[in-house]
Design goal:
Blueprint lengths: L6 H4 L4 H15 L10 H13 L12 H27 L7 H16 L6 H7 L11 H16 L1 H4 L6 H42 L7 H14 L1
C-alpha cells in the first residue's frame, strides 16, 4: 500500500499506456511545424497533452509532464540498449532460425549484459522501425555471413561426419567463450555509435536554430561540441 506523495504520479504504467506515450513522443518529435522551434518544456507539455487526450484513456487520471518525461527516459534507455543486443543476435543468427529465435537470443544477451531482464519488448516493437532505433544489420546479410562460416564454427571433423576429439572439444569451448566476449564488445560498440549519432543530431539542431538559444541550450551545445572534438 502506498502512502504519501501524489497518487497520480506513483501509480504504475501499463503496456497500453506505454504505447500511447510512445505514439505521443513520435508524433510530437516529428511535427514539421514546431519540431525545430519548441523549447524542452513546451515539447514535453505537448507530449503530455497528446497522451492525456487519447480516447483510450477516457476516465483515467491524467498524467503529469514529469511522469511522462521520466517514463520516456527509461523507455529510451532500455530500448536503445536492446537495439544493440538485437543487432548482435542478428549477427549470430544461424540458418533455420526464425524471428522468435533471434528475439530470444537478444533478450538473453540483454540479460547477460545488463544483469536484468528486458521487460519493454512491447515498446521496442513500437520503436524498432524508427530511424533512431532501427537495426543496422539486416537478417538477410546475417544469414549469408553465417552460412559461409558454418563449417568453421561447427568444426571440420563434425562437418565430415567424424566424432569430435577431446582436444577439439576443448578448443571449440574456448572459441565459444571468445565468441561471446566478441559479441558483447560489438554490442557496446553499437550502443556507443547510436549514442554518438543521437548527440550529433541534437548538436546539429541547436546549431541550426535561428533564434537565440536559452542558457540551458547554450550549455548543452558547448558540452556536445566539446565531446565531439
Amino acid at each position: 500500500m502506498q502512502s504519501g506523495g501524489d497518487p497520480k504520479e506513483r501509480r504504475k504504467w501499463c503496456p497500453k499506456e506505454d504505447k500511447i506515450l510512445i505514439g505521443a513522443w513520435l508524433n510530437t518529435s516529428k511535427d514539421a511545424v514546431v519540431s525545430n522551434d519548441q523549447r524542452a518544456g513546451a515539447f514535453w507539455k505537448r507530449i503530455a497533452d497528446y497522451y492525456n487526450a487519447s480516447p483510450q484513456l477516457a476516465g483515467t487520471i491524467p498524467r503529469e509532464v514529469c511522469s511522462c518525461k521520466k517514463l520516456w527516459g527509461r523507455i529510451n534507455a532500455d530500448v536503445s540498449k536492446f537495439a544493440g543486443c538485437y543487432d548482435a543476435a542478428l549477427r549470430e543468427q544461424r540458418s533455420g532460425q526464425n524471428d522468435d529465435d533471434v528475439m530470444k537470443a537478444a533478450i538473453d544477451i540483454f540479460f547477460k549484459t545488463n544483469d536484468n531482464k528486458f521487460s519493454m519488448d512491447h515498446c521496442w516493437r513500437e520503436l524498432r522501425h524508427d530511424q533512431k532505433w532501427c537495426s543496422t544489420y539486416g537478417p538477410k546479410e546475417c544469414g549469408k555471413e553465417k552460412r559461409k562460416g558454418d563449417v568453421e564454427a561447427d568444426g571440420g571433423d563434425e562437418a565430415e561426419g567424424r566424432p569430435i576429439g577431446v582436444k577439439a572439444a576443448k578448443a571449440a569451448s574456448k572459441k565459444k567463450k571468445s565468441g561471446k566476449e566478441e559479441s558483447l564488445a560489438k554490442i557496446h560498440a553499437i550502443i556507443e555509435i547510436k549514442e554518438k549519432l543521437s548527440k550529433q543530431k541534437i548538436l546539429e539542431r541547436l546549431l541550426g536554430k535561428k533564434e537565440p538559444l536559452t542558457e540551458m541550450e547554450t550549455s548543452l551545445q558547448l558540452k556536445l561540441m566539446a565531446e565531439m572534438l
